Amino acid sequence: MKEEYRSRVYTDRPAYADLPAPEKFQAIQGIIATRLLQHPKAICSYSGGADSDILIDLIENTRELLNLPPVKYVFFNTGLEMKATKDHVKATAEKYKVEIETVRPKINIVQASRKYGLPFVSKIMSAGLEGWQIKGLPLSIAEEYEQAEDKIAKRAELKERYPGCETTINFLCCCNSKGEPRPNIQLVINSSKYMKDFIGEYPPDFQCSARCCDYCKKQPAHNVQKDYDMIITGERRDEGGMRSVPRKDCTTMCFTETSSGQYRLRPLYYVSDDDKAWYKEKYNIRYSDAYEVYGLTRTGCCGCPISYKAVEDLEKIKPYEPNVVKAAWAIFGKSYEYRQKYNEYKAKRMAEEAQKKEIIDGQLSMI
Question: N or C, fewer C-beta in 10 Å, the chain?
């Protein structure tokens, strides 16, 4: 059996990552305490989501227990937020007796989407397809690479043929920059089944891009975080996407030093969904109405097409906040419809393959 490639995020794990929930959260509180003592001028992003609720509870309980300095909290309002989220941010600030500052972007979600494009499937897929659309590389380079006996040489030749397109070449050919095949990682087009065939048969009639996240969250975050020594976020590996991809400065992902000299702490990085459920029950954490009343399993940016359940979730929100749902469809409608078309295409291809396999298996059994 061919060995499956696993990134360093999965292979280089800290010891506490595999502990049972009670011991794991004790270890995390120890990490929070240590880092706050080392870097007391800290800022934490609070989204109003479930991960943020676990994170702020851990931080504030640790602070109270050890009399640690206060942490600055900020909530980034993209311009398309549920009332349930905004109300929960206010309630959380009151619960812990802290200030959670609301920060708004200079370019809101509507402006960013119109100017740069719409997210599709994932941030990685959106960025990859954006590069493909802008650079204009033919999808046929993937077949060239696949059929080449010397894939490293073929990758080098493609780089020379299409200068300035390395990331897009890697994305389409499912390889790394050395030319080594990497078909199972999330940075390539194969991370979504049949995607290359689908866009070849049905090219998108809109620009794909995840830059709305850059302009509505990352840039405002950078501006407000630049004067702090340590940045705390609630990223978890189990969320997938870019959050499960190793970075150059760190393999374990929990604590890193950035190029600016700041430190980044991700206390929840190795907290699983089961760990979260344990903590919620143990400490009686109440999530926002988006979870507890509407029935969502995650929030993030309201209506973002990156969620495979975006349309389904909008239907859950609709009885409570119909105007937000209308706004989401007005902004992201083309991406929702294209995702539906892709889902139907994928289901059809999978059914055809299953039928073909059944026929072949039947013929072999007869022989």
Answer: N
- The 3-class secondary structure across 44-57, one letter per residue, is EECCCCHHHHHHHH
C-alpha distance across the termini of the chain, in Å: 26
Residues 6+ apart with CB under 8 A from 154: 144, 145, 148, 179
Q: What 3-state DSSP class applies to 103?
A: strand
Report the run of H or E that residue 107 belongs to, with start and end.
none
Q: For 361, phi and psi rounded to 5 degrees?
A: -60, -40
Alpha-carbon span 258 to 230, nearest angstrom: 10
Tokens of 241: 């996407």
At how many degrees (to 10) do helices 50-66 and 83-96 cross?
A: 10
Q: With H, G, I as helix, E, B as strand and everything else as coil, classify residue 265.
A: strand
62 CB-near residues (< 8 Å, 6+ apart): 29, 32, 33, 36, 68
Q: Looking at beta carbons, which pairs linking 128-131 to residues 24 or more positions away fall under 8 Å?
A: 128/167, 128/168, 128/171, 128/172, 128/187, 128/188, 128/189, 129/199, 129/204, 129/208, 130/207, 130/208, 130/209, 130/210, 130/211, 131/165, 131/167, 131/168, 131/171
On average, the pLDDT of the chain sits at 90
Paired residues of 73 in beta bridges: 44, 100
For the beta sheet containing 72-76, the strands, ordered from the edge strand earlier in sequence to the opposite edge, are: 100-103, 72-76, 42-45, 230-232, 263-265, 255-257
- Return the C-alpha torsion angle 316, 320, 324, 330, nearest 10: 60
Backbone angles phi, psi at 270, to 5 degrees: -105, 25
Residues 24-46 pLDDT 10s: 999 999 999 999 999 999 999 99
Torsion from C-alpha of 74, 78, 83, 87, nearest 10 degrees? 0
Taking CA atoms, 82 is separated from 200, 229, 239, 321, 324, in Å, by 36, 31, 21, 7, 7
The pTM of the full predicted model, rounded to 2 decimals, is 0.82
In single-letter form, the type of residue at position 149 comes to E
pLDDT digits (tens, 9 = 90+) for 167-208: 999 999 999 999 999 887 888 998 899 999 999 999 999 999
Give the residue among 350, 346, 236 at the shortest CA–CA distance from 298. Answer: 236
